[in-house]
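An instance noted here:
***
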Amino acid sequence: MSRIGKKPIPIPKGVTVKVGPDAVEVQGPKGTLRQALPPGIVFAQEDGTLVARLLRDDDELRKFHGLARSLVANAVNGVNEGFKKELDIVGIGYRAELKGKQVHFALGYSHPIVFDIPNGI
């Protein structure tokens, strides 16, 4: 069994989970997500957590154990907090500044790199 697959997924307050035979549906303040499950992997709710289990001990199923757990954990995180990406600029002389609806990057080139900010950010 997978080490990641064995870890229980805590269910935060305000998030409801419906476990079906082939999918897990997660509802939260940020929306609803439905995550399909590989055949042979089932989830169960125990003491405010979700636990992934294998139907039978088979090498073909074990490789999906950690994957299924990670996908459902990401769905729970997504409906509760939402997804985000962060950009780290590391180095001396590198910088980024916001000018209106554009970001101007100084990354060591002879010219600044201008990036238009997409809608919704």
Observations:
- The chain has two helices and nine strands.
- The mean pLDDT is 91.
- The radius of gyration is 20 Å.
